[in-house]
Design brief:
The protein is of the alpha/beta class. About 25% of the residues lie in helices and about 25% in strands.
């Protein structure tokens, strides 16, 4: 796969980016709406849509006069059901996108280095595994005709002053540390960081801020690994395993399994 595009027109001026950060309270998930308003068709995409707020997001797309073309996921989520499938039933022309490494179902699959075009604006795909095996970060382009400062949609790989857990779904603290430091912290320091979740009311950070102040990923690798093996993560994981063994059809196991299976395509949702 190379580039996904809805147009071959070349930009004459810097594209005008429409950007909205949308919040789903139950799972504390951020969905992002981006569109190229300078293009005649106003092509748009949604990053990490949630099924429970899909109608709200689609109403906004209509209100702004945008043409939704893609529903994109940063990874296979375990805490909410993606809105991609519902969106596709209501907007039949929309294509779902996820990383090839996720082993999930979608219409289109991306790999590191691919570009997803919507009008004259594009997102570059960067592999950031560690929270899950197939996590990717989507980064706006660095050309003179691209929105500046750059923006990175980090999924659960990098949160504001934190990061996603690494104890299930093929997670690895080694991989997460390397991913963030090689694929995100190498971006310009003024790059705006937009995560898939926040639980403290934060909305945006920058590469420079997280390099300095992230209490986990600003540390050296061994310290980071020790942090990720500390009580908050592994006591929950231990409780989860014990409860699953003691209780047939554990409510916790079934909930995670149901959501993951919906999102990776074993149940229809892509």
């Amino acid at each position: 796969m190379g580039s996904y595009s809805t147009t071959s027109s070349s930009a004459q001026n810097s594209p005008k980016l429409v950007f909205r950060q949308l919040f789903e309270k139950e799972s504390s998930t951020y969905t992002y709406l981006l569109a190229d308003a300078s293009h005649p068709q106003k092509p748009a995409l949604l990053i990490d849509p949630v099924d429970k707020t899909a109608d709200r997001d689609l109403a906004l797309v209509k209100e702004l006069g945008l043409k939704l073309i893609y529903a994109i996921n940063t990874h296979v989520h375990a805490d909410h059901v993606t809105g991609s499938g519902l969106i596709k039933t209501k907007f039949p022309g929309v294509k779902s996108i996820i990383s090839k490494a996720s082993n999930a179902k979608a219409d289109l699959f991306v790999e590191p280095g691919d570009k997803i075009y919507f009008g004259d604006i594009f997102l570059e795909v960067r592999a950031t595994p560690g929270h899950t095996l197939g996590c990717v970060t989507y980064v706006t382009g660095d050309g003179s005709n691209q929105p500046q400062p750059r923006m990175a949609f980090t999924g659960d790989a990098l949160l504001i002053r934190g990061c996603g857990r690494t104890d299930f779904q093929g997670g690895s603290s080694d991989k997460l540390y390397d991913s963030v430091h090689s694929q995100i912290f190498t971006l310009p320091k003024d790059t705006l960081l937009y995560p898939a979740h926040d639980y403290k009311g934060f909305t945006v950070s920058t590469v420079g801020e997280e390099m300095l102040y992230n209490p986990r990923l600003s540390k050296d690798k061994e310290t980071f690994k020790n942090i990720m093996q500390s009580k908050p993560f592994y006591l929950f994981a231990l409780f989860f395993v014990i409860f699953s063994l003691l209780a047939d059809d554990s409510i916790f196991y079934n909930r995670f399994e149901f959501v993951i299976s919906k999102n990776d395509g074993r149940r229809s949702s892509s």
